[in-house]
Design brief:
The protein starts with a helix and ends in a 5-residue tail after the last helix. It has nine helices and six strands; from the N terminus they run H-E-H-H-H-E-E-H-H-E-H-E-E-H-H. It has helices spanning 2-16, 55-58, 62-74, 76-97, 135-201, 207-242, 277-298, 341-407, 413-447, and strands at residues 48-49, 103-110, 118-130, 264-265, 303-314, 324-333.
Amino acid sequence: MRLIILLLLSILLPCCSLLEERYTTPSSPVPLFWPQGEAYRVDTQRGLPIRDVGWEEFLKDERLKGIVRLTLEKNKDLKIALLNVERARELYGARRASLFPEVYASATVTEQKGRDTQYSTSLGISSWEIDLFGRLRSLKDKALEEFFATEYARKSARLSLIASVASAYANLAADKERLSIARLTYETRRKSYETIKRRYETGLSSELDLRTHEALLRSAELEVERYVQRVAQDENLLNLLVGLTVPSDLLPSEITSLPFPEEISPSFSSEILLSRPDILQAEHLLKAAHANIQVARAAFFPRITLTTGVGAASTELSSLFKEGTWAFVPNLLQPIFDASSRRASLKAAKIEREIALAQYEKAIENAFREVADTLAEKGAIEAQLRARLELLETAERAYILAKARYEKGIDNYLSVLEAERTLYAARDGLVALRLAKYLNLVTLYKVLGGGR
């Protein structure tokens, strides 16, 4: 009797100190509102709410939409992410099935020399664990949260891929326009070089003027070759992202003709970040770590299994089911001494939860910084773009005047050269700013978590 009491105490005493903990959502480690100041010259209420804008409404260029559709169908990374989701779903199904008994049936015929043939059948449950203390349920919850985390990882990969394709498309359009500007500059300098060469041959221009024009021509030629290379590399990157060679009719022309994406409102509050796929992924991993603690806690409780069966045996097949047998075998297993293995496993599970919590908070902090940086850039780009348009208009007018004064002999060619350089820089700078604005809008859509 004393031995039985000691055994019961060894089972129940650990259980009293291991009450189940409820999961609570951690508080956000970042400010509730976006940063304010001179750098953030952005109306946070301008544009559509991010949750209402899918990628097809966000992107305005029909050719780009066609490329994105191809990408979502052919990209290998996205295919791997989808397969990971399917695998996690099946693992969850397997964990959920362990809550139910596994019923087996068997039929045998035994023949031995010198003995009658033996027929037998049986139907029963083999070692079904009765989940009184939640071990199997916690394993199922852990698998479910890991499945959700994998699904949000897929959504995050999908959003990043769409943003990468849109960025690569815009870069290609910008480099195509830069190539057009470089070719136009080359043609202009070629014509000037030929004119100066004829003047040099008739003694109206010096060799210095001739060599200066020749150097400018070679410089323009190098710029053309540089952008030819960059356009080819941009197309290669786009093909890699899509997973096949993009049809030529879907490639962009120049960034000037590329419509900007839809304006997105980041809203006042940073709470919108909690809907980002990567943050939801981190939160579900945190929940999975919490469920793993419950698995470790359940190890302190007895594990109860049940084996049952009904069957029949006979030497005559016709009388097989006339007499039956049955079995009912419950089993209780409670470790008494394990050299603190279970407590070490519980402590390890708690540490894993702390790691998952730190990763969750870090994901929110990174997301907040990404949005803040993008908003700061957005305000600066708008102001720079207006100034750059005015600069281009002024540079075009100055080049026309400098060229006219040179042709009339009022100024030397240095004035034309300086005006041409200013005009080239203004055109190239405008392309760069258009590209920066496009990429900024794409980045803002991405860092806010996309919509629908």
